[in-house]
Design goal:
40% strand, mainly beta, five-stranded antiparallel β-sheet, 184 residues
Length: 184
């Protein structure tokens, strides 16, 4: 089926779907609910999202939705590469406020499964990087939240210097985790 690598944060899984290639190109099944359920991954996805970041160094996040609209996500890069990060926001978790990061790329064809209860961000490492992800809940503006990408209480080790990052005004002004009611 697929290669699964469970990361240090509970529920965070790097996934490598198989690719079948020949001289015409390739085929890959990137999601199959029944097959993945047999592997212990049981998530109902309801929305697909696709973003293009034109410049290297574009940082999007840390974003999440508060309950009852919390989202699990299955993230993949189909062109370029990105440093993808998840931060555990579940207060009862032994890894609360800890983060994990994985480089996702079109070349490696890997994905990151992020359970509900995590904040998510990605930093593009190549120009014209395309990120696609499935979400288990539809976008809800009233539940949408953000945390500062450089919150010292989280301490994410971004692979590019802060001065080289391109952020939206919203992400640049996001509050620290200590100042956010996550709802988890």
């Amino acid at each position: 089926m697929v290669e699964l690598r469970r990361l240090a944060l509970d529920g965070l899984i790097e996934i490598r779907p198989r690719r079948f290639a020949d001289d015409r190109g390739f085929f890959s099944e990137t999601w199959n609910a029944a097959a993945w359920r047999e592997a212990g991954i049981d998530v109902d996805f309801v929305q697909d999202n696709h973003s293009l970041s034109k410049a290297r160094g574009t940082l999007r996040g840390l974003h999440f939705q508060a309950p009852p609209a919390a989202q699990a996500k299955l993230v993949r890069v189909t062109r370029g590469s990105a440093f993808d990060v998840a931060v555990d926001l579940r207060p009862d978790s032994s890894t609360y406020r800890q983060w994990a990061g994985v480089i996702l790329s079109g070349a490696d064809w890997n994905q990151l499964l992020i359970p509900a209860g995590f904040a998510h961000a990605f930093l593009t490492l190549d120009p014209d990087t395309e990120v696609q992800y499935k979400a288990s809940a539809a976008y809800s503006p009233s539940h949408d939240r953000a945390i500062r990408f450089d919150d010292p209480a989280i301490g994410i080790d971004w692979p590019l210097a802060a001065a080289d990052l391109i952020l939206s005004d919203r992400d640049r002004a996001a509050p620290l985790l200590a100042d956010v009611d996550t709802g988890f």
